[in-house]
Amino acid sequence: MNTNKLNVLILSIVFIVISFLCTPCYGEKIVIDGSTTVGPIAKAFAEYYMGKNKGVNVTVSESGSGNGAKSLINGTCQIADMSRFMKEKEFKAAANNGIMPVAHVVALDGLPILVHPSNPIKGLTIEQIRDIYLGKIKNWKDVGGPNLKIVKISRDTNSGTYETFEKLVMNKEKLAKDVEYVGSNGAARQRVQKTKGAISYAGLGFVDKTVKALEINGIYPNQETITSGVYPIARPLFMFTDGYPKLGTELYKFITIYLSEDGQEIVESIGFIPVTSY
Fold it and tell me: Whole-angstrom Cα distance, residue 65 to residue 278?
């Protein structure tokens, strides 16, 4: 064998060895898409997991629960974040694509009704909230508040949060034409922060000092009232996978974070309720 051929052979072997050794540097990729409510949990889990597993890349998108379901069905994500359970038509579409959705309840959530901190209203009933969003109650003075027009903010209709609100509060009645729709829980909170007459709703983890959460039917949304089932607007939060991940895989280790002590602390630190508290 001449020198040139020998050099080529040696270089080829070196390249193969380096490629083999560096494979873990690229690592496995976990793609997550879906709910803006579950998004903060997924992002916190991703940061935690990548910190402990340098060879794994976890990406999180927040396109809404409906789009998360579509992504899982189309095979463009491994995990669909959803703030509602998957619909029958989504299960059928998944089955037609050879996908078997499995639900993982990663946290519990209440749906606080939010107003501006300056609003003196302490609470509302479900019926009053429904009448506000139907356009029957137009001014805060009609429910014991200031003489101020009510500005109605809602999540977009592709949102699982919207569907929970539509089911548990609106009884699936159509919202008034002047309702303003926003694309995320963060946007809903921001709109309330800046508008004295606003009312909206969001996941429990989005309540902070910049907005005021109301009592509903005399019950304030917190861990105790939500886990006991007393607070009337509550729900589980889901991550869906295609089948149950195989034991020992990166996907399995990621999707079971919520069962660990660290995972429970992460969920609670964000403002949601660990399933172990139920």
Answer: 23
Could you count the other beta carbons within 10 Å of the beta carbon of residue 36?
Answer: 29
Backbone φ, ψ for residue 180 (5° rounding): -95, 130
> How do the residues of the chain divide into helix, strand and coil, expressed in percent and rounded to 5?
40, 20, 35
Domain 112-220 falls in which CATH fold? Answer: D-Maltodextrin-Binding Protein; domain 2 (3.40.190)
Name which of 132, 123, 130, 144 is nearest 218 in CA terms. Answer: 123
Any idea which residue has 């037609």 for tokens? 96
CATH topology of domain 3-108+236-277: D-Maltodextrin-Binding Protein; domain 2 (3.40.190)
What's this model's pTM, rounded to 2 decimal places? 0.82
Helix (H) or strand (E) holding 51: helix 39-52
153 phi and psi angles, rounded to 5 deg: -115, 135
pLDDT tens, residue by residue, 44-95: 999 999 999 999 999 999 999 999 999 999 999 999 999 999 999 999 999 9
